[in-house]
Amino acid sequence: MPALILMALVGLAAQLVDGSLGMAYGVTSSTLLLAIGTNPAAASATVHLAEIGTTLASGVSHWKFGNVDWKVVLKVGVPGAVGAFLGATVLSNLSTEAATPVMSLVLLALGAYLLVRFTLFGLRTDRQHLPLRKRFLTPLGLVAGFVDATGGGGWGPVGTPALLASGRLEPRKVIGSIDTSEFLVALAASLGFLFAIGSQGVNFAWVLALLLGGLVAAPIAAWLVRHIPPRILGSAVGGVIVLTNVRTLIRSDWVGLKNTPTEGLTLAAIAVVWAAAVVWSVRAYRADQAAARAEKVESTGTEATAVAATPA
Q1: Is 185 within 8 Å of 18 (Cβ atoms)?
Q2: Average pLDDT in the 19-33 region?
Q3: Separation CA 160–CA 238 (nearest Å)
Q4: Angle between helical axes of 70-92 and 134-151 (0-180°, round to 10)
Q5: Best label site of 45, 61, 81, 285, fewest CB within 10 Å?
Q6: What is the pLDDT of residues 188-210, one digit of tens each?
Q7: Residue 277: CB partners within 8 Å, gap ≥ 6?
Q8: Residues near 177 by beta carbon (within 8 Å), at least 6 away in sequence
């Protein structure tokens, strides 16, 4: 029972992050399952089965709050489903010993990207409402779907920053569209795993616990997407993913430094960098907010002066 409660809390927390940031449900959940020794293919299958329900609920919630661009959903979601099915097939044919460090490397890369992307860079807004071309969305969907299935997560970490960086869609619609299209990806990946490995190693009680936690969080996250600064949340989540997967790699046969001083020093150094990144993001966000307020005050003052100077 404690394990099921933990899974439900993980599902709730992961969906709160995913629904408000457009990423990290799969990466966060898969990282936990790998950390407790779950077979990589089974871990990814477990997460994707739960995501069928959570992404459906998240998509409906985002749609109700007006956060979805349906053209983007279809153009990125369909190729994403193809990539996810292929990725599930590839991961299912790797041995457990080979797949664990490989999967951790994928998750580590995604976590590092999140940490750097959201700590050091802001979001472009000067190109919003320009069209997103199919020649951009199709390969993006294929790559993100493949990474998502092989890494146990990655649809959001690949898709959301790419769309945000394009500056052609307002952030809330990027997050809502990526979350909604993820339903197709989760469904295709789940089918790929079930065809390849059946239900071997999949704990359906864990699937249900992750699903229930995600269902509770989905509508809350869709509302929070307008209120939580993505920059701060991205830095926080990226740090967790980097720290956890570095620990997994250090303890793998590839490195073999489990329970050594090197392991402790490495994890401590990463924790310090992570804390500094979050502090940096908070300060950058506050500076951006202060600059926006100053610009608004200046604009209001200029307008008032112009009105006062207008002859009666």
Answers
A1: no
A2: 68
A3: 14
A4: 40
A5: 285
A6: 888 887 787 676 666 677 777 77
A7: 115, 119, 235, 238, 239
A8: 62, 67, 68, 69, 70, 72, 73, 76, 163, 169
Helix 25-35 × helix 230-250 angle, to 10° = 30
- Mean pLDDT value across the chain: 77
Contact present, 247 and 35 (Cβ < 8 Å): yes
Evaluate whether 41 touches 168 at the Cβ level (below 8 Å): no
Of 296, 307, 18, 29, nearest to 181 by C-alpha is: 18
Q: Show the DSSP H helices in 36-154 as ranges.
A: 40-64, 70-92, 96-120, 134-151
Q: Map out the domains of the chain as residue ranges.
A: 2-304
The confidence score (pLDDT) of residue 36 equals 67
Coil, strand or helix at 294: helix
pLDDT for the residue 309 = 60
Question: The tokens 């809502």 sit on which residue?
Answer: 176
- Report CA torsion sign: 118, 215, 85, 81: negative
Q: What local confidence, expressed as pLDDT, does residue 89 receive?
A: 84
Query: Please, what is the Cα angle at 126 between 166 and 18, to 5 degrees?
Result: 50
* Model confidence pLDDT, tens digit, residues 91-142: 777 655 566 677 678 778 877 887 887 788 766 555 656 677 788 889 989 9
What is the per-residue DSSP string for 4-36? Answer: HHHHHHHHHHHHHHHHHHS--HHHHHHHHHHHT
Q: How far apart are CA 139 and CA 155, in angstroms?
A: 13
Q: Are 174 and 163 in contact (CB under 8 A)?
A: yes
pTM above threshold 0.85 = no
Tokens of 202: 């999949």
Q: Is the dihedral of CA 162, 168, 173, 178 positive or negative?
A: negative
